[in-house]
Design a protein that fits this description.
The complex is a heterodimer of chains A (334) and B (104). Helix content of chain A is 36%, strand content 14%. Chain A has 334 residues and is an alpha/beta fold. Chain A has a ten-stranded mixed beta sheet, with helices on one face. In chain A, strand 8 and strand 9 form a beta hairpin. Chain A starts with a helix and ends in a 12-residue tail after the last helix. Chain B has 104 residues and is of the alpha+beta class. In chain B, helix 3 packs across helix 4. The chains are: A alpha/beta (334), B alpha+beta (104). The complex binds iron/sulfur cluster (SF4) (2 copies). One iron/sulfur cluster binds next to loops of chain A.
């Protein structure tokens, strides 16, 4: 796109919304488990939905924390879908039995993503510190499928699964999942603390992505998605993303439980508050957002032939490890 | 039925601020043919409609025929009816083929 983001977009396309940091799990890679924060009451949450509908934001994705912990999740979703928003969520699946799946369908959810990190039940349970979680997660996928809700599966790529992501794809097929997200490892929260044990080396990332992109090319029955901008630097990369580099601050923003806006859940820089600040002003004038949209090549990115497509990789990872939005992504293998 | 309607599965947004900008550029005599004012999100891809396309898209709300859409647009553009009608017909034909527009 030749135009800069805000010349065309009057708002992001997606708000990733953490309604609560609370969770029934304590996963090793979680970015939010160690966070605490004030939560908005239902009426205020509806006011936030009003702002999003007014700004014509088409998509809301509830994440967390575990969204189903909030007992007003379905009410809020109904409110948002009645206003024309497309609502999805990411859940660990523990609380999602058949009856809940039916309520989810009735509330108007467009799709539900279940996090599954390994096709081996025991590894998933160990990683998520929760016995029986694999069983419940796969049962949640089946329950959703039975009631006609589109399902997706999310796995954060780490040392425990990077070598056998194929088995995750097979698992997705078995449970009639339509799309699999192989998320990059973000190094925030617990993920940052545990990164020595969980994160791959840059070379391993490269090998993983070469193989995974090759698989994506020949896979017709399942949509495979990545969210790692650094893959744009791989030779032969021919996807056509809507924006170059990280999409946060451009196509998406993140909401914290108290209504604070951050560029994404992994960048702890508050841009403003959706209920107390003027959204338009934040969107067009926030120095943080404009900094993310107009990164400058630093360090080895200067002179890198891939910079135009990669834009220094994942801004969240650069910020987490260096405190600077424009430094090269620590996962970069160049 | 001959009322034109947007495919309800398509997620879209009218970028009003951008449209104002494009209208100003048009008044200043600039070529705005390639400047999008409506974005459509279809199967993970974004498409943009230019000023005329965006206006037609906005008017395809299931209450108007092609004729009526041309009538509405004549108030906005200073052109011969048959010239405008031909442009509108071409655009609508293309979008009907893509199934982005349907007859409601
Ligand atoms: S990763 Fe998800 S399921 Fe695990 S602790 Fe964090 S919020 Fe809970
Ligand atoms: S050096 Fe910078 S621009 Fe080049 S691939 Fe690495 S992160 Fe991307």
């Amino acid at each position: 796109m030749a135009d800069t983001i805000t010349e065309l977009f009057s708002a992001p396309l997606t708000f990733n919304w953490t309604l609560s940091y609370k969770c029934n799990f304590t996963c090793s890679h979680c970015y939010s488990r160690d966070e605490v924060g004030e939560e908005l009451p239902t009426e205020k949450i509806k006011q936030v939905v009003d702002v999003l509908a007014d700004r014509q934001v088409p998509f809301i994705n509830f994440g967390g924390g575990e969204p189903l912990i909030r007992d007003d999740l379905l009410e809020v979703t109904r409110y948002a879908t009645d206003k024309g928003l497309n609502v999805s969520m990411n859940s660990n699946g523990w609380l999602l039995d058949h009856a809940t799946a039916e309520q989810i369908q009735q509330a108007g959810f467009k799709s539900v993503g279940i996090s599954i990190d390994s096709a081996v039940g025991k590894s998933h349970d160990d990683f998520r510190n929760m016995n029986g979680s694999f069983e419940r997660a796969t049962a949640a996928l089946d329950a959703l499928h039975q009631v006609g809700v589109k399902t997706t599966m999310s796995a954060v790529i780490s040392r425990i699964n990077f070598k056998d992501f194929h088995s995750l794809l097979d698992l997705a097929r078995k449970h009639k999942v339509s799309q699999v997200f192989l998320h990059n490892f973000k190094c925030s929260g617990r993920g940052f603390k545990n990164r020595e044990d969980l994160d791959l080396s840059p070379q391993e990332w490269k090998e993983f992505y070469v193989e995974a992109l090759g698989t994506k090319k020949v896979t017709k029955d399942l949509l495979i998605s990545f969210d790692d901008p650094v893959i744009a630097s791989l030779p032969g990369y021919d996807e056509n993303p809507m924006v170059k580099g990280s999409s946060c601050g451009k196509l998406s923003l993140h909401l914290r439980p108290n209504g604070d806006i951050t560029p994404c859940g992994f960048i702890p820089l508050v841009v403003g508050n959706i209920l107390t600040d003027n959204f338009e002003d934040l969107w067009y004038n926030s120095p943080v957002l404009n900094g993310m949209r107009n990164k400058e090549a630093k360090g080895k990115c200067q002179g890198c032939g891939a910079y135009q497509d990669c834009l220094g990789g994942c801004t969240a990872r650069s910020f987490a490890t260096t405190g600077d939005l424009s430094e090269p992504d620590p996962h970069c293998w160049k | 039925m001959t009322f034109l309607q947007r495919n309800p599965d398509i997620v879209w947004r009218h970028e009003k601020r951008r449209e104002e900008q494009v209208l100003k550029e048009m008044d200043a005599g600039k070529d705005v043919e390639e400047r999008g004012t409506v974005i459509l999100l279809i199967s993970g891809m974004m498409h943009q409609l230019n000023l005329l396309g965006g206006m037609i898209w906005n008017l395809c709300d299931g209450t108007r025929t092609e004729e009526q859409i041309v009538d509405c647009l004549l108030k906005e553009f200073d052109v011969e009816r048959n010239v405008l009608a031909a442009d509108v017909a071409e655009f609508i034909e293309d979008l009907l083929q893509r199934e982005w527009l349907i007859y409601g």
